[in-house]
Q: What sequence folds into this?
């Protein structure tokens, strides 16, 4: 693989295709991390490895400015079998870059290349390559390993591709842009019986069904209609067979919201409803609720900077500074709880373009190579705007 290509677009595409062909999942990104470290070192950056496991921080200082800005990319892949015939299809069975982190890495490498060559800013940029975004654990791992103490930043910026948005367009918003993710498990223990004699048991399927329906009333009757929240029951597991009513049922799912107050309300109401329905039906209930992803809440001042940089690169008509929030989760939010920053979406392509509109986490998904240079120019322009000479 040629790491010294004179063609910027071709170089980013080569990096992206190589990373796509060699996906590694959360905290296993050893080859990916080594590849990134070599490329960054070849650029002349000061590279620090093994931050939070397989994370990397690469520093670039120009001039004597005191400002320090972080640019972050996620680096992990998903445990999914790729369906595709392109030459760079995943070579690691059961793993693929189905969320575009290969493109994110290539984009930030591109920004580093631009900034090392142009040196049109005054201060320090830290390029942060974070493991294990998909599990929601990578940002915390890096911070527990002293990320911001060892490599302090004034602000941090990130980006995620968005299928369905016009290719290369950029959108963001002040406040909540991506939701928290909390997981729950509701275990119901009734009393099994023969299917012909339901009166001799305590049917946990009926009880669990009541709970699933009742949980939806939390959003419709306990939440302010202007405040976004989601409760989704995604698994319904029993220990029964066709001609026997089971004893145990397990309901699994997750919730999405933007504030700790809503998270608390959802947890408390879900627990009360689940335990109450079980009690009136004479069943036992075990309720578990865990916090997996923090909400991604942009800082208003940083949004202004991000919007200005985006407008400079793609034009006013291709930038939305007050987009609709997305109820998916992204552990960049953990960074924003510790330091100011902004997260943006870059369009991967829509139906009219015929490319880039396959949904994330789909076995046929692929990052749109045409937006790599746009994303790199955006980050480079952001640094120029934020750390002027």
A:
């Amino acid at each position: 693989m040629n790491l010294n290509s004179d063609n910027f677009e071709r170089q980013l595409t080569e990096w992206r295709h190589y990373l796509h062909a060699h996906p590694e999942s959360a905290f296993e990104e050893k080859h990916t991390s080594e590849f990134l470290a070599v490329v960054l070192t070849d650029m002349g950056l000061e590279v620090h490895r093994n931050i939070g496991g397989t994370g990397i921080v690469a520093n670039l200082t120009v001039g004597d400015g005191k400002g320090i800005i972080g640019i972050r990319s996620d680096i992990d892949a998903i445990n999914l079998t790729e369906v595709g015939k392109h030459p760079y299809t995943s070579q690691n069975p059961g793993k693929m870059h189905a969320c575009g982190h290969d493109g994110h890495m290539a984009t930030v490498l591109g920004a580093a290349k631009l900034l090392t060559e142009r040196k049109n800013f005054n201060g320090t940029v830290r390029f942060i390559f974070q493991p294990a975004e998909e599990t929601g654990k990578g940002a915390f791992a890096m911070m527990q390993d002293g990320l911001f103490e060892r490599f302090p930043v004034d602000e941090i910026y990130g980006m995620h591709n968005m299928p369905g948005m016009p290719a290369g367009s950029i959108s963001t918003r002040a406040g909540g842009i991506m939701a928290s993710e909390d997981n729950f498990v509701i275990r119901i223990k009734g009393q099994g019986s023969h299917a012909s004699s339901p009166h001799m048991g305590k049917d946990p399927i009926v009880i669990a069904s009541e709970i699933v329906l009742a949980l939806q009333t939390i959003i419709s009757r306990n939440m302010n209609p202007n405040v976004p929240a989601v409760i989704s029951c995604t698994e319904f597991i029993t220990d029964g067979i066709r001609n026997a009513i089971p004893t145990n049922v397990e309901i699994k799912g997750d919730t999405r919201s933007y504030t700790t107050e809503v998270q608390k309300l959802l947890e408390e109401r879900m627990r009360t409803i689940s335990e109450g329905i079980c009690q009136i039906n004479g069943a036992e209930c075990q309720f578990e609720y865990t916090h997996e992803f923090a909400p991604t809440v942009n800082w208003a001042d940083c949004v202004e900077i991000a919007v200005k940089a985006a407008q400079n690169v793609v034009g006013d008509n291709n930038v939305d500074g007050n987009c609709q929030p997305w109820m998916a989760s992204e552990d960049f939010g953990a960074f924003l709880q510790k330091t100011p920053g902004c997260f943006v979406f870059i369009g991967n392509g829509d139906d009219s373009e015929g490319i880039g509109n396959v949904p994330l986490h789909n076995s046929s998904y692929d990052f749109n190579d045409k937006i790599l240079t746009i994303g790199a120019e955006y980050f480079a322009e952001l640094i120029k705007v934020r750390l002027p000479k």
